[in-house]
Amino acid sequence: MAAPVKSPGPVKSPGHVVAPGIGGVGDSPLRPDGTLKVAGEFAYASDLWMDGMLWGATLRSPHPRARIRSIDIGPALATPGVHAVLTHEDVPGRKVYGEDHTEDQPVLAIGEVRHQGEPVAVVAADHPEIARRAMERIAVDYEVLEPITDPRAVIADPERLKVQARGGITRHQPVRVGDVDAARAHAEVVVSEEFSVGIQDQAFLGPEAGLAIPAEDGGVDLYVSTQWMHNDLSQIAPCLGLDESQVHMTLAGVGGAFGGREDLSVQIHAAMLALHTGKPVKMSYNRYESFFGHVHRHPAWMRYEYGATADGKLVYADVEIILDGGAYTSSTRNVTGNAASLGVGPYEIPNIKIDAYGVYTNNPPCGAMRGFGAVQACFAYESMMDKLGAACGLSPVEIRRRNAVSQGSRLATGQVIESPAPLAEMLARLEAMPMPPACDPSDIRNLPGGASQTTHGEGVVRGVGYGVGIKNICFSEGFDDLATARVRLEVIGGEPTALVHTAAAEVGQGLVTVQAQVARTELGVQKVTIAPADNRVGDAGSSSASRQSYMSGGAVKTACEAVRAELLARAARRYGHDDLSAVGGKIVSRTAGVLGSIEDVLGDDAIEETREFHHRPTTGMDPVTGQGVTHTQLALCVHRAVVDVDVDLGLVKVVEMAAVQDVGKILNRLSLEGQIHGGSAQGLGLAVMEEIVVSGGLVRNPSFTDYLIPTILDMPPMRLDILENPDPDAPYGLRGAGEPPTLSSTPAIVAAVRDATGRALTRVPVRPEHIITAGVSG
């Protein structure tokens, strides 16, 4: 995946992958990129290089909101070694872009900046340091304006703040089921609470980077780390004033994504500079700039009220969810829809009122991140289940069991639950798992604070908590989700070989391995090559929404089926049998045994087929009631967390996490377990450490020194119970698995800390002061 590419392309770029070893669907072949990554030899986008290339840099606004009176680029342009300084006046095409046809984000600021870090100008120079120095010489005269930073104020008075906050409310999505007011009058137990979730960053290790090279057709060759090339393409080409056929995109090595690469970063800027100078231009953010160069998880403010019978059966839910989308739309509309449709989780509630809002402010732009709206709601509804259980005198598991959805139950949107394992059974399996042993304080590494020796066991209390999450898989609300695959079967070196070509982004999740497994299974060959992902083949959709195994896996499967059908048709004509299959490179008849080989049938010819795969259709949410069959597939994960808490210092050590998840069908157990571990780690981060701190619209901690993410020392051992309940509508019956663990791990950990401390803990991440200071919830 990291073979060099000679000029005129970049020296380093992902090449063809020959998936090693034997492994079809259900096996766990090793990842072809794994050794390279572990050894530090994998070529990421930031490693791209080409002789004679220039370096690009971006001047960004220091203010969350300001009017631009003037920009003087003269001193920067006069700097020796500088080849170009561009502002919005130099954008050759459309000056704005955005996801989902929401073109509201300027390529470069036009008259006003609406968040800290908004791009104002770009520079190209012979050396990155020259580019940075020139950037500092651009003189921008700002009239600083008062930023809108409280999304709740926007909800309270959207019209007054509409102009200031770039539109007020992005989306209001209500959900209405039954009669909440009538149900409230008859509820025997009522609990309510307000919750908030801080801004989480995707914290991928590979910074945003790309290389743009002027092409002979007047267009541009763009090598970039992204999650969705064709979505990028639809935004890039109009801004460059080019036809989409003139933008030649190739996926560069991606060092993690988690939603943060769905929005554009360097793509248009690098391409503008390359086209303007006629030279290759590389742009690569440092870590500080990366915090401003991509969207983050939406912070949320949530008000919940639940009513139940005395024995704990839910009778109504009254919910308000406010999501801060920041300065521009990005994916806020879809995140709001997800939060609304999954806002009360996998529980049967006959009367529901939900109001979910996505709001514009002058805070950092927020968009897609693993869990996509469902994470925020899950923290709130799971905290409410614990609170309701305590009010009814029921255990955390029992209150969930009494209200759990099962086959045939309906979500808040009216969508019928199909196929997943019964939640009550999953809870029982989780509760039956062994508990970890008691803490051994003789080794201080086992204690909160670890080797810092803050304690030797004094004031350390153990707690146990549970969390349940339900997540939609694939795109929702009527989106015609599709993926395309081209498969070619031919004989190379005397051996039948399959070449699989998609535009699907390998972002670290193991998709390259799964595509090869599918091809081996469907074609009966062992040698499978995965072509570099680029836009010479049709759209594969985004590497997000836990959808690529389902969608691109389905596309590869469908294309392979077409290739196999043609292969066997040729074999039938050759051998005079029609009861044929391809097994281990051989053509086999059920009645006559082995007749020959794939090589004999193909000869010097090849079979190539391209196919699109679509999942079953969905509908939008009714704008008044929120009803609709909005999701393709649903997946459940349940977590149990065990923590030790130093209640005097507010330090938390997560001792163990256990999870039960239904995945439909295991395609690759090794990769699957990695996804569950990884999702749980991100949930742990949100629970107790990860937050972008914003004050007055300004980011206070844009570095990994001050923005803390879990390390190997923070991640505890995990017990996994993986269930397989096939989905009849999905390829191989699989159920997307990457996101659900992110949902349920956070509330489970916080519940465990509550159990240890007795604190309400209504905000994540939980900070030491929330634990040690009475009355403080965040």
TrEMBL record:
SUPFAM superfamilies found in the cross-reference section: CO dehydrogenase molybdoprotein N-domain-like, Molybdenum cofactor-binding domain
Positions of the UniProt region annotated as Disordered: 1-29
Domain Aldehyde oxidase/xanthine dehydrogenase a/b hammerhead: 39-146
Gene3D superfamilies associated with the record: Aldehyde oxidase/xanthine dehydrogenase, a/b hammerhead, Aldehyde oxidase/xanthine dehydrogenase, molybdopterin binding domain
NCBIfam families: pucD (TIGR03196)
Protein's recorded name: Xanthine dehydrogenase subunit D
Gene name of the encoded protein: pucD
